[in-house]
Design goal:
elongated, nine-stranded mixed sheet, alpha/beta, 46% helix, 16 helices, 13% strand, 370 residues
Length: 370
């Protein structure tokens, strides 16, 4: 009889085969019968049975995979890491829906990946104050209304780490999906953040073993897990190309909702978001209300009361408020004419006022005071 430990070794080895994902794993196991049998059959019989030509059927290749798996089983056991196979009941339901989901994931920390409200927040590594501030406000407001909120991101520089830090700040568990094994945190400057994530009810997650080499392709491959783990993906800032847009495309392919934060025309790190919105690939999001409405999520607690009529307004924001108040409601172009401001500059001010719940956006690019 195969022991629990040796069964895990075979699963680790099987999951590490080149090109292995949930779909291929299912097909192979339907033919071969078990992971153990895949590794104990001789090459000739295995190729005849599966009609496979790939190198994964070679005796020497399978032997090497098995030896590394023995080492990995020792590593995860000694470091308190959970190795979750796609046939386990604890394998994340949402992730299993993705056809290219990994056959094995490795996690550190306890977090409810089956929570009713899981949101991925991603974006450029070159985040601006606008993007960082938006992350904080969005996650703060969502956490106030959704006690079971889980925030997913990739622990990268910029928007990713801003999302994790906002979740930690506002008491929401957060999941960091890593592009390498759990033997080392990448980037190393976010090691303290990773420790805080685990300490405060979050999780570090990867599909790479401690022996896998870090390759450029890992970073884009990691995005499929970020997209699949959640109900919706929010792109906060992105250039015209990059990992965040790849995550958006993957999320769409998994039938997940995608939302993007608008930015000023001409801003390099808003170009990707603006394009997603313009081509109807993402819904425009300016605050937590937009996300809650799009997802049809109901707040578990009353929305925070606004104690001041117009709190913390800048001089530019107050000028916009004065014009809107005088007109009752006003079109964007008329507002730009009245203030002698270009539309692109006004848009960022209007987004801020919307998030502060000072104004409401009406159909046809019209605005009014709340």
């Amino acid at each position: 009889m195969t022991s629990a430990s040796s069964a895990l070794v075979y699963q680790i080895a099987f999951a590490s085969l080149q090109g292995m994902g949930v779909d291929l794993a299912r097909k192979l196991l339907d033919v071969v019968g078990s992971e153990e049998r895949f590794f104990t059959m001789n090459e000739k019989d295995l190729r005849a049975l599966t009609r496979g030509r790939s190198k994964i059927y070679r005796d020497d290749y399978r032997h090497d995979c098995l030896q590394r798996a023995y080492q990995e089983e020792t590593f995860v056991r000694e470091h308190g890491i959970s190795a979750t196979y796609f046939t386990d009941e604890t394998y994340p339901r949402r992730l299993l829906e993705a056809p290219d989901a990994p056959a094995m994931i490795y996690t550190l920390g306890k977090c409810d990946l089956e929570s009713a409200h899981v949101v991925s927040v991603v974006g450029t590594r070159h985040a601006t104050q606008y993007g960082i501030r938006f992350c904080d406000t969005l996650i703060r407001d969502l956490a106030q209304r959704l006690p079971d909120l889980v925030v997913v991101s990739g622990l990268a520089y910029g928007i990713d780490i801003s999302a994790h830090r906002a979740a930690l700040k506002h008491g929401a568990p957060t999941v960091a999906v890593l592009p390498r094994g759990l033997n080392r945190i990448y980037p190393s400057t976010h090691r303290d953040d990773a420790i805080a994530i685990v300490k405060h009810g979050g999780m570090l997650l990867t599909d790479y073993t401690s022996q896998d080499e870090v390759q450029k392709s890992n970073f884009l491959a990691r995005n499929r897990i970020v997209a699949a783990l959640s109900d919706c993906t929010v792109i906060v800032e992105s250039a015209g190309s990059g990992g965040a847009l790849v995550t958006a495309s993957l999320a769409m392919s998994y039938n997940r909702d995608v939302m993007a934060v608008p930015g000023r025309c001409g801003d390099e790190y808003s170009a990707g978001c603006n394009k997603l919105i313009a081509t109807n690939k993402a819904a425009l999001i300016t605050c937590a209300d937009d996300l809650m409405a799009a997802m049809r999520w109901e707040s578990a607690s009353p929305e925070p009361q606004q104690l001041e009529l117009f709190p913390d307004l800048t001089k530019e924001e107050q000028a916009v408020i004065d014009v809107i108040r005088n007109h009752g409601e006003i079109h964007l172009n008329a507002l730009a004419d009245a203030l002698q401001q270009p539309v692109y500059k006004l848009m960022s001010i209007l987004v801020e006022l919307d998030c502060k719940k000072v104004i409401a956006t009406l159909p046809g690019c019209r605005y009014t005071i709340l």
